[in-house]
Amino acid sequence: MAQFLQVDRVFTGTEFLNNVTLKIEQGKITELGHDSVESAQKLNGLLVPGFIDVQVNGGGGAFFNAEQTPSCLHKIAHSHGQFGSTVVMPTLITDSIEVMNKAADAIAQAINDKVPGVLGVHFEGPHLSLPKKGTHSEKFIRGISEAEFAVYARQDLGLKMVTLAPENVSVNDIKRLVDCGVKVCLGHTNADFDTAMAALDAGADGFTHLFNAMSAFTSREPGVVGAALWHNTSWCGLIVDGHHVHPASAKLAISTKSKGKIMLVTDAMPPVGTDDTEFDFFDGRTVIRTGDRLNSSTGELAGSVLDMASAVRNTVNTLDISLDEALRMASTYPAEYLGLEKSKGKIDVGFDADFVLLDNNQNALATYVLGNNITE
After folding, report:
1. Selected catalytic residue, list 53, 173, 192, 267
2. Predicted confidence band of residue 125 (pLDDT cuts 50, 70, 90)
3. Does domain 3-48+348-373 have CATH number 3.50.50.60?
């Protein structure tokens, strides 16, 4: 049965339209026009493409590293759905092979069960650089082996991402990952420019949380940051929470990098959507929330309590980016990165009915996944 929505204002991903009527059938947008339909549900606000977050460790009190179950994934996706995310990539940070296998099983089950918003998995580690490990547990950082390849080669995990340090993973192994259908991101790396560029030549196409936990740009050694900004066709995730990246650095990256290649990410942790002030972490540590900042009890930044609606708002208010471009950074560009550009990231005929209704301050009022309001 067809569903009709009549909206004050719509941002399609390319332009703003007024007084739009959407027809939705079987989770797809089948008509986009201006004719009034008496049975249409009326929405007051700005309807924009659903946000797509490729780095989500937790939310709603749930932490993927602590519980590898479909119910945990549902809780994470649902909590971020309250803030406009219609697709999340649940992210498992550096852990044991046993936990990686359990995480893969949970992802496969969630995809099979069609848990809203879960389309794949992001393994952030364990093949990282010790000097740039950040808050990751040193005892689990290791080289790549056949045990991990068996996980990465699975065909029931949907979209697959792996963040690695290219100085610790050979070019041949990066090529092998790409051949397994994995999107390889460079992160938590102390590599030099040439090593990073060799990894990109081998098929890596992304950088995890640009500037954070990677070798810096300097005059005689451009480092991983230099490779990220120089390389035209790769994508960069950017955490715009006011803590991970200085606004001037973020502005410089956006103005330098090829347009459409910087996407907003949250690197979100369990407290998102809750009032929780701390949670248990690796090695007997605690992650402590102070306002909108998270730090491990040993001092390092430990992800964020950022949601995508706030990331959009911060991008507009602190980086002087136009609203339409900030919205593309949260939806259109990550959709393109994940290869979903023909189904998600825009409001248009033939696209999935994934969108979020925003108020004038970019607060999420309602979120729809395949035409279903998941915030009711």
Report:
1. 267
2. very high
3. no
